[in-house]
Amino acid sequence: MADDKVYPQDIEGYEDVTTALMATVNAYPGLPEDEKFRFTMLEPEEGLSIVASSGSLIMEDHESITGHVWQTCLYPFMVIYRVSGLNQKRKIQVKEWMDTFARWLTRQPVNINGRTVVLEYWPTLTGSRLIRNISRQTPAYLGGINEDKSETWVMNLQIQYRNEFDR
Amino acid sequence: MVERKFLAHFLSTTFDVKSNQQTYVRIGSYLENYQEDLGPQVDVRHNILGEQFAVHNGYQVQSAAEPFYIDTTADGRDKALSDKLMEIANNRLTGDQCKTYRVDALFEPKTEVVNGENVTTITSIWAYREECLVVPQSIGGDTSGVQIPFQVLNVGNRKEGTMTWTMDVGGQFTEKT
User: Fold this and answer.
1) If you compute the radius of gyration of chain A from its CA atoms, what whole number of angstroms results?
2) Residue A145: inside a domain, yes or no?
3) Which residues make beta-bridge pairs with B118?
4) Tally of domains within chain A
5) B51-88 confidence digits (pLDDT tens)
């Protein structure tokens, strides 16, 4: 987000979206063997993680003449891949893996092991919330080199969803 | 100040003003602004003495509902009206085929204690029903959803009455005797 405005939070939505997001990313057919995404956690040396950057933000709030409310909310998050022992070739592979994963999560067709796969539907939320879009904000980039020489690769994405209720 | 949601606007999806059975739907789920534009017909002139006078000939009343998102879900609150608007637009219907009733009503909530519990009921302070033409303006819109905005043009036979309304049962207009 480009501005510094403080947006109200959709607390229930945050929990709901987190649950749906984690179920979806862990269903990615290109996950490395024995690897699962963790939420806001990393193994000391290696691992995949999803980190919610700033909760669920209510970007727009509209109320109709009937008292019906619809909100546009954003759930920014980071995909973090921490790996060790990288040479130049492995670095490229990690970056490509993250790029492919991001394309899949944004519902673009990707090739995994010679097979084209597409995320057919946005993750389903409960109640009156509905995901409208998942978009990538940055390419995969080297976020930092840790003391143990492992590298943290990062990619920023965001989920836009709509919430409706009667006030 | 009266909350805006207590001024309610209804259209009959029956589209037959001769029928005794009218089915009213409340409009405005996604309208942040909606008004009955009275369109007063006032002609201001000056006489030979240089004095100003005005001739008030009446009103040309109409309303515009934009946006209106079509609702195709089986139990959607806007489904009945969406179906009718699409029928009018797709078949290019005109005249009496677009004629129905509109009802505008101002409600107030009243809370009473019944068996020791607070029970809130909604009653109309006033309600007026009038025949109108419902005319779709376009089909399409931006990526927020398929829209079919429409105009409501009053065509007379205005009656005062009372209106009851609940989400489950719908609306019922009773003409004042």
Assistant:
1) 17
2) yes
3) B113
4) 1
5) 999 999 999 999 999 999 999 998 888 999 999 999 99
Cβ–Cβ of A70/B3 closer than 8 Å? no
Domain that holds residue A67: 11-166
Query: ipTM score here?
Result: 0.82
Beta-bridged to residue A129, according to DSSP, are A163
Mutation target vs B (from A62, A66, A69; most B CBs, 10 A cutoff): A66
Output the average pLDDT for chain A.
Answer: 90
Question: Does B29 contact A at CB distance below 8 Å?
Answer: yes
CB A13 within 8 A of CB A73: yes
CATH number of the domain to which A94 belongs: 3.30.2000.10
Nearest C-alpha of chain B: how many angstroms from A142? 35
Report the residue count for chain A. 167
Instruction: Show Cβ contacts of residue A30 under 8 Å, excluding neighbours closer than 6 positions.
Output: A97, A100, A101, A104, A110, A112, A113, A117
Q: Are strands B150-166 and B62-65 parallel, antiparallel or unpaired?
A: antiparallel
Domain-located, residue A38: yes
Asked if B9's CB is within 8 angstroms of A64's CB, the reply is no
For B136, the 3-state DSSP assignment is strand
List phi, psi (to 5°) of A64.
-85, 175
- Inspect the interface and report whether the beta carbons of A68 and B29 lie closer than 8 Å: yes
Q: Work out whether strand A47-52 and strand A37-39 pair parallel, antiparallel, or are unpaired.
A: parallel
In a domain, A37, yes or no: yes
- Alpha-carbon gap: B105 to the closest alpha carbon of chain A (Å): 12
B124 strand-pairing partners: B107
Low-confidence ranges of chain B (pLDDT < 70): 167-169
Considering only alpha carbons, which residue of chain B is nearest residue A72?
B144
Note whether residue A1 is domain-resident.
no
A18-56: pLDDT as tens digits = 999 999 999 999 998 888 999 987 666 678 999 998 899
Q: Is B32 on the interface with A (CB under 8 A)?
A: yes
Compare CB distances from B28 to A62, A65, A70 and report the shortest one's residue. A65
